[in-house]
Design goal:
The chain is an alpha/beta fold. Helices cover 42% and strands 17% of the residues. It contains 13 helices and 14 strands. It has helices at residues 13-19, 29-46, 61-72, 86-97, 115-119, 144-154, 173-176, 202-208, 220-227, 238-254, 256-276, 299-310, 336-350, and strands spanning 2-3, 53-58, 78-83, 101-106, 128-132, 134-135, 140-141, 157-161, 180-184, 195-200, 290-294, 312-313, 315-316, 325-329. Strands 2-10-9-8-5-3-4 form a seven-stranded mixed β-sheet, sandwiched between helices. A hairpin with an 8-residue loop joins β13 (315-316) and β14. It is globular, with a radius of gyration of 20 Å. The structure holds pyridoxal-5'-phosphate (PLP).
């Protein structure tokens, strides 16, 4: 089975080798040193400000989204949420559960997020914006520069979920003026699922000190305190943190820019081939991480046939888009030969 998914994805042999080893004990100076080294590389790879803080959370990405919301905002806030798909909807659900005030910028399928659309929300007293910079359920990549200008001119804090975009699309945390950046292990990093990372700006830190998150496990103050010495308050997913440190060094060796270029090259190779066989792609801006393919109601049967007859696992889409959208991931250990194999499989199935 070849995985053209968005997480978990095809893992690299170096990661699989680490995953097969006995775990070390973690309350040691060796483990602390590794964590501080990972923190340094995470900041480097995201262009984070020097005095920003990094939290390693043992949880899937959704917990990091929830942690960002409850640690950075309270009842005095009035939030804006970009909801162009299921991950934007998840931010809404999190705010609803915690009784936070929010308004959503809802996009219909195929609708692109423009500065003009955002201007409807200008000067309306919003205090923060929550956005999944790559809305993974549709593949749309939003314009971070436009959103950060909007937030800056409105004095709003900006929380960017870059879980499926980090290492696939260019990202400059400091340049964007964002306050929180959220990453996760199982997407472009191609590690086991279970570790999520929050990077917090110095400006956000001051505000966080005044907020009671109303959660024990997700109180980020304790994580930041322990991370000063390279530790976590609770037993972390030790093995994934070892996988992470190794991958951060691999990326450092080839450089973040080259890593992003390789994902971009794989996606543009696939999109070119897809165009040749007449499969349609939406016309909104796309992340390099995945290609959405449009069908006329038969997406699920195409998904099943690719999986069962050809051993090719693409990513189905939930909700309203179930019948019309399949997504092809370009992340993890894949090459253009895999693209050719998938195109051949698609040709067969579509005959
Ligand atoms: C994958 C992903 C998440 C995390 O989802 P989990 O199922 O909790 O791992 C969050 N946001 C985006 C944009 C994602 O692509």
């Amino acid at each position: 089975m070849r995985l053209f998914t968005v997480g978990p994805v095809e893992m690299y042999s170096s990661t699989l080798e680490i995953a097969s080893r006995q775990l070390p004990y973690f309350r040691t100076s060796e483990f602390s040193d590794m964590m501080l080294d990972s923190e340094r590389l995470i900041k480097k790879h995201t262009h984070a400000p020097k005095d920003s803080r990094v939290v390693f959370l043992t949880a899937s990405g959704t917990a990091a989204m929830e942690a960002a919301v409850i640690n950075c905002f309270d009842e005095s806030d009035n939030l804006l949420i970009v909801n162009g798909g299921s991950f934007g909807k998840r931010f809404e659900d999190i705010c609803a559960v915690h009784g936070l005030r929010y308004t959503s910028v809802r996009l219909g399928f195929g609708e692109r997020l423009t500065g003009e659309r955002m201007s409807e929300y200008d000067r309306k007293g919003y205090t923060g914006l929550l956005v999944n910079i790559h809305e993974t359920s549709t593949g749309q990549l939003y314009d971070l520069d436009m959103l950060s200008r909007f937030c800056r001119s409105n004095g709003m804090r900006l929380v960017v979920d870059a879980i499926s975009s980090f290492l696939a699309d260019p990202l400059d945390f400091e340049g964007s003026g964002a306050d929180v950046l959220i990453l996760s292990s199982q997407k472009v990093l191609a590690l086991s699922p279970g570790i999520s990372i929050l990077i917090i700006s110095p400006r956000m830190l001051d505000r966080m000190m005044e907020i009671d998150p109303g959660s024990y496990y997700l109180d980020l103050k304790s994580y930041m305190h322990d991370m000063e010495r390279g530790q976590t308050p609770f037993t972390p997913a030790v093995g994934i943190l070892l996988e992470l440190n190794s991958m951060l060094h691999i990326v450092d060796g080839i450089t973040v820019e080259k890593k992003i270029e390789s994902v971009a090259a794989l996606s543009s190779d696939f999109r070119g081939r897809l165009c040749e066989i007449g499969v349609r792609i939406p016309d909104y801006p796309l992340s390099n991480a995945l290609t959405p393919m449009m069908f006329d109601g038969n997406a699920m049967s195409i998904f099943e046939e690719l999986k069962d007859r050809h051993g090719l696992m693409v990513t189905p889409t939930g909700g309203d888009l179930k019948g019309i959208l399949l997504r092809v991931g370009h992340i993890g250990n894949l090459t253009s030969d895999d693209n050719i194999m998938l195109i051949e499989g698609l040709k067969e199935v579509l005959k």
